[in-house]
Amino acid sequence: MLSAGLVAATLLFCPGCGNGLIVEEGQRCHRFACNTCPYYPKLKEVDDVLEPCPKCEHPRAYSMQLQTRSADEPMTTFYKCCNAQCGHCWRD
């Protein structure tokens, strides 16, 4: 379980110039952007998760996989509830 204040982070790079992407405030939400190029990566579709949010039972969540342990162990999947009032984060 992610504790309050703990954020899973990953560093993304621009495929055009190789610079690290920054997070900027868009019209409707925050998004990744390149300071050098006019590059904005497309957002992934939101998937239904096998289990609903453990806090509010909402059936949809954002997911992200990260290699948090050694390479011979499976990746850890992090989830964030799509319900704007909830926003609960958990991991598999």
From TrEMBL:
A zinc finger (C4-type) spans 14-37. GO terms for biological process: termination of RNA polymerase III transcription. Residues 49-91 form the TFIIS-type domain. PROSITE patterns: RNA_POL_M_15KD, ZF_TFIIS_1, ZF_TFIIS_2. InterPro entries: DNA-dir_RNA_pol-M_15_CS, Rpa12/Rpb9/Rpc10/TFS, Zn_ribbon_RPB9, Zn_ribbon_RPC11_C, Znf_TFIIS. SUPFAM superfamilies: Zinc beta-ribbon (SSF57783). It comes from the Eukaryota. Zn(2+) 1 binds at residues 14, 17, 34, 37. GO terms for molecular function: DNA-directed RNA polymerase activity; nucleic acid binding; zinc ion binding. Residues 1-20 form the signal peptide. It holds the Pfam family Zn_ribbon_RPB9. It is found in: Nucleus. GO terms for cellular component: RNA polymerase III complex. Its main location: nucleus. Keywords: DNA-directed RNA polymerase, Metal-binding, Nucleus, Signal, Transcription, Zinc, Zinc-finger. The keyword Signal applies. Zn(2+) 2 binds at residues 53, 56, 81, 86. Component of the RNA polymerase III complex consisting of 17 subunits: a ten-subunit horseshoe-shaped catalytic core composed of POLR3A/RPC1, POLR3B/RPC2, POLR1C/RPAC1, POLR1D/RPAC2, POLR3K/RPC10, POLR2E/RPABC1, POLR2F/RPABC2, POLR2H/RPABC3, POLR2K/RPABC4 and POLR2L/RPABC5; a mobile stalk composed of two subunits POLR3H/RPC8 and CRCP/RPC9, protruding from the core and functioning primarily in transcription initiation; and additional subunits homologous to general transcription factors of the RNA polymerase II machinery, POLR3C/RPC3-POLR3F/RPC6-POLR3G/RPC7 heterotrimer required for transcription initiation and POLR3D/RPC4-POLR3E/RPC5 heterodimer involved in both transcription initiation and termination. Core component of RNA polymerase III (Pol III) which synthesizes small non-coding RNAs using the four ribonucleoside triphosphates as substrates. Can mediate Pol I proofreading of the nascent RNA transcript. Anchors into the Pol III active site to constantly monitor transcription fidelity, cleaves mis-incorporated 5'-ribonucleotides and restarts the transcription process. Once Pol III reaches the poly(dT) termination signal, can induce Pol III clamp opening and transcription termination. Belongs to the archaeal rpoM/eukaryotic RPA12/RPB9/RPC11 RNA polymerase family. This is DNA-directed RNA polymerase III subunit RPC10. It comes from Muntiacus reevesi (Reeves' muntjac).
